[in-house]
Amino acid sequence: MKKHSDFINCQKNIFDRNVTCLEVVKSYLDRIEKKNNLNIFVEVFEEESISRAKQIDKKIINKSAGKLAGMIIAIKDNICYKNHNVSAASKILKNFKSTFSATVIERLIEEDAIIIGRLNCDEFAMGSTNENSFYGPVKNPLNNNLTPGGSSGGCAAAVAASLCHVALGSDTGGSIRQPASFCGVIGLKPTYGMVSRHGLIAYASSFDQIGPISKSSYEIDIVMKIISGRDEYDTTCVFDRKDYENSNLDLSKMKIAIIKEASFHNLLHADVKKSFSKLIESISSDGHKISQISMPVLNYLVPAYYILTTAEASSNLSRYDGIKYGETQRKEINHWETVIKKTRSLGFGKEVKRRILLGTFVLSEGYYDNYYSKAQKIRRIVQQKTDEILNEFDFILLPTSPTIPFNLNQKHKDPTVLYLQDVFTVQSNLSGHPSLSIPIFQYKDDAPVGAQLIGKKLSDQTLLEYGDFILKNYV
């Protein structure tokens, strides 16, 4: 894999004593301050980052520094960091301070990464534009009139604006890959069960997965080598770290499946279609086998996804009642039921309320079999069909998003219209397979287009290698 990256160059200079870790941190803090208008960070850990940098500089002198010494990492505001605020960009968790660190945070700190701050996101990771945030919308650093995508829009924007080496986001139905596409960077949704979810504020537990965003596949790879692997605090994290490092394919001759229904989808923007077709032609002309396959179930992915995720959200978010969790609304209220109603009414945003209501509805008596049970059957079909395709092919290739980046404050008469933008990304969340978004084209100087690779389970590292191969040879 290509090893040229900002972090590798930075770390080399630090270990060669050409620059100190402290100087690197201060340069990033200065850059963050200058880009403050983008509303990317909700909190910057300035004093702590400086203190950590000084400690790591001493370790470097003593030759005891970890593998990620000098790496600047920013985290989505739904990943817990001990003794730091975490709010999932929601008013209901405005003053909540975590009493423990997510497993991924502990593993990064053990290797001397520096967590520089927490990043804006859609409230409880529900959204596609990063406008559903208590802290206000994030602006796309490539064009401040565009959204960066969502829900990990702050993560992708931070990387695109060079405010960190790597950002850690979460992906429930495309929340890492779609903003990576909109900001022209690389985003990985790992195999479900590869990375611990312990310390991630849940949206839909059987879909959520923490993953990295960066400008370099190599940076994502070295972070994955640290954060992946079993965790006693997460029983769904079932794979060993060695399962991540199992790349052994000849990347020069791949068998690629193209989903016909995606290539001709009615939502596909003309320039997305044009750039994606150009990429396919380039790959095919170089000897890779490209085959079109049909997947009619594609049209059912979004409805099934939203039925299942909102059902899980309805359950997961029930804990925010103002009694144990949540910004309480107890003033002059004596009845617990009134406390809960007022807390949730004032604490949750419109989109979160909408999804809780939908999830409660599909789980209710009389509707469970009509909606939730059928969606589970669709999920099983998607898993089986994806496995069938990947038994014959090395990867599935399709656009990351059917559209180019949205305009900020774009109004939609139907509030659910943005749900359809997940049509290409939800497949790998429904099936549990790893998926990678890479930038393939600039529609304009400020509006990128991304392509998405879906691979076999546990092929995460191979995905990164082949994504890097595509960027180096065909983009």
Briefly summarize what is shown.
This protein has 475 residues and is of the alpha/beta class. The protein has 16 helices and 11 strands.
- CATH topology (level 3) name: Amidase signature (AS) enzymes
The end-to-end distance, rounded to whole angstroms, is 16 Å
CATH architecture: Alpha-Beta Complex
Q: What's the helical proportion of residues?
A: 25-40%
**Secondary-structure element string:** HHEHEHEHEHEEHHEHHEHHHHEHEEH
Number of domains: 1
The CATH homologous superfamily name equals Amidase signature (AS) domain
Give the overall average pLDDT.
93
The best one-word shape is globular
- E-strand count: 11
Q: What is the C-alpha radius of gyration, as a whole number of Å?
A: 21 Å
Structural class: alpha/beta
Total helices: the number is 16
Task: Please report which band the strand proportion falls in: under 5%, 5-15%, 15-25%, 25-35%, 35-45% or over 45%.
Answer: 5-15%
Strand order of the largest sheet: 1-3-2-4-6-5-10-11-9-7-8
CATH classification class: Alpha Beta
Could you describe the largest sheet, including whether it forms a barrel? 11 strands, mixed
Low-confidence stretches: none
Describe this structure in words.
The protein contains 16 helices and 11 strands. Strands 1-3-2-4-6-5-10-11-9-7-8 form an 11-stranded mixed sheet, sandwiched between helices. The protein has 475 residues and is an alpha/beta fold. The chain has helices spanning 6-15, 21-34, 46-62, 103-110, 153-160, 177-183, 217-227, 241-244, 260-263, 270-285, 301-316, 336-347, 350-363, 368-392, 426-431, 460-473, and strands spanning 41-44, 72-76, 114-119, 166-171, 186-189, 209-214, 255-259, 289-293, 395-399, 435-444, 447-455. The radius of gyration is 21 Å and the shape is globular. The chain is 39% helix and 14% strand. It has a single domain (1-475), classed as Amidase signature (AS) domain (Amidase signature (AS) enzymes). Helix 2 (21-34) runs antiparallel to helix 3, helix 5 packs parallel to helix 6 and helix 11 (301-316) packs across helix 14.
